[in-house]
């Protein structure tokens, strides 16, 4: 019985000392991005570079700080781009064409990090620009801030078409009924 108690205490001490790991990762290695998936992660090839960007948090909201992580490496020798990247944001509406610079970043541990805050919900375009070997590189990617609108332009257009078709159908039925009434009155 004593052996059983000693073995269970020994096993308990061993398992409690390993409790700081979460799914194989030590807890001291976790940061604000560790448990939050990105709202988007895109990998693309542009010119001589392979670019990966991620946007945090998973569901960006108005007046909440968001983060962009951008990685740029050369395709040939996998060297990290070491320069400045300019980040801009613009409204992705049908009648908007102005953009605002949200920051110019230098490399920090092989990644370009940019924080942003958007005041209103909507669709936006984030633009990352850099110049390498006297050649401009521009990467645009869409970003949705807040919950999507319930009435979008395609839904409004479809609703308008349905209403017009209903009005035409009702007026045609009335004309047909009036013609039938006239025909029955003529027969009498």
Alpha-beta content class? alpha+beta
CATH class descriptor of the largest domain: Mainly Beta
What's the arrangement of strands in the largest beta sheet?
3-4-5-8
* Overall morphology: flat
The percentage helix is 25-40%
Radius of gyration: 30 Å
Mean pLDDT: 82
Low-confidence stretches: none
Fraction of residues in β-strands: 35-45%
> Termini distance?
112 Å
Instruction: Provide a count of the helices.
Output: 2
Descriptive notes:
The protein has 188 residues and is α+β, with helices and mostly antiparallel strands. The chain has two domains: 29-145, Immunoglobulin-like, CATH 2.60.40; 150-188. The chain has helices at 2-17, 153-187; strands spanning 21-22, 25-26, 40-46, 49-56, 66-74, 84-91, 99-106, 112-116, 122-132, 135-145. β9 (122-132) and β10 (135-145) form a beta hairpin. The model has no long low-confidence stretch (mean pLDDT 82).
């Amino acid at each position: 019985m004593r052996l059983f108690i000693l073995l269970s205490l020994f096993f308990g001490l061993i398992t409690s000392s390993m409790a700081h790991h979460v799914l194989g990762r030590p807890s001291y290695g976790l940061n604000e991005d560790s448990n939050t998936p990105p709202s988007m992660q895109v990998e693309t090839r542009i010119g001589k570079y392979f670019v990966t960007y991620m946007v945090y948090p998973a569901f960006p909201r108005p007046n909440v700080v968001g983060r962009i992580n951008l990685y740029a490496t050369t395709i040939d020798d996998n060297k990290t781009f070491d320069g400045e990247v300019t980040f801009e944001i613009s409204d992705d509406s049908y009648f908007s064409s102005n953009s605002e610079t949200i920051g110019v970043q230098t490399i920090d541990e092989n990644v370009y990090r940019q924080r942003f805050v958007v005041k209103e919900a909507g669709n936006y375009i984030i633009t990352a620009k850099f110049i390498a070997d006297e050649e401009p590189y521009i990467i645009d990617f869409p970003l949705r801030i807040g919950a999507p609108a319930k009435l979008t332009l395609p839904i409004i257009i479809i609703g308008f078409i349905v209403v017009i078709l209903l009005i035409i159908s009702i007026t045609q039925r009335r004309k047909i009924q009036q013609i039938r009434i006239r025909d029955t009155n003529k027969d009498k």
